[in-house]
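USER: Study each token:
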Amino acid sequence: MDSFEDALRVRGPAFDAGDELVGSVHVVDLDGPAHARAFAFDEPSYQIGAYREVMLRRWHNALGRSMWEYPHLDEPEGLFLVMGFEPDPRAPFEDELPNADLVAFGHLLSDDGSWQLGTVAIVRAMDIDNAGSLLHGRGLIGVEAHGWTFGGRP
């Protein structure tokens, strides 16, 4: 992963309500699907079977920044990963950013960028229910929220 250090935009672990690790998020700015697959599947922990599954998607960075540019980077409490999926793929569109304290926000896209498949946000919120409500009313299904914290090093 260190060889991709300059390309990492967002990274960190996600937790369930009991603070058990449920996954990890890595947003990496790479030169296409082949490099993305190499990042995910050539990673040593993946190679030894540490991960049950990997979701690999193109992502539109609506904020245009990395998590290292988040103004409250020194305050890791109250952060949540929120994601939801389109019921059917649709043409990508730019919608208004939620009025929230966002670390990251953007849409999941097909490999070629022609279809929007879902939305992912990392947000500071009072609790997991408030975090999850960030994506309600956007027509998404399977909305879920998890505790999250910054990972890696700037």
Residues 33-41 form the longest helix (9 residues). Residues 77 and 149 are 8 Å apart (CA to CA). The chain has a mean pLDDT of 91.
